[in-house]
Amino acid sequence: MSSDAVNVLGTPLQSCCRDPMTGYFRDGYCHTDATDAGLHVVCALVTDDFLAFSARRGNDLQTPRPEFGFPGLQAGDRWCLCAARWSEACHAGCAPPVILEATHESALQVASLKDLKAHAVGPVSL
Q1: Hey, is 85 helix, strand or coil?
Q2: Fold type of domain 1-125
Q3: 38, 22 contact by CB (below 8 A)
Q4: Which Pfam families does the record match to this protein (predicted)?
Q5: 67 Rama sector, left if φ>0, alpha if ψ -120 to 50, beta otherwise
Q6: What is the DSSP letter of 118?
Q7: Alpha carbons 101 and 123: distance in angstroms, whole number
């Protein structure tokens, strides 16, 4: 993946999380490319409300799926979420906090910078 990836603030993309290892490419970054149909680019600090919301929408993020390298998430984990799901949660009032420095600029194709900033938390150390 290119090292010149940019976040929604226009600065170099920072790592989202390495424990659990996140990202479409499972490299700790919310990078994307044309094969990422879900646009997994929003670095979020998942909450119980969001996990329940996602499960109601048919995407259980809590159950481990080792065959896909997915450990299962719990509240407090950082994870690269699908931009459309985050936006949907935002409009439903249950969007998890976002780490802007680790959210890829392509999230702006789906979510507004205003909404992302309204849910922003400071950079979280890895």
Answers
A1: helix
A2: Phenylalanyl-tRNA Synthetase; Chain B, domain 1 (3.30.56)
A3: no
A4: DUF2237 (PF09996)
A5: alpha
A6: H
A7: 7
| Amino acid sitting at position 111 | A
Secondary structure element (H or E) that encloses residue 51, with its range: helix 48-56
Give, in order, the Cα–Cα distances in Å from 50 to each of 35, 42, 56: 25, 13, 10
pTM above 0.85, yes or no: yes
Tokens of 121: 């938390």
Query: Residue 76, Cβ neighbours under 10 Å: how many?
Result: 10
Q: Are strands 98-99 and 120-121 parallel, antiparallel or unpaired?
A: parallel
**Which regions in the chain score pLDDT beneath 70?**
1-3, 123-126
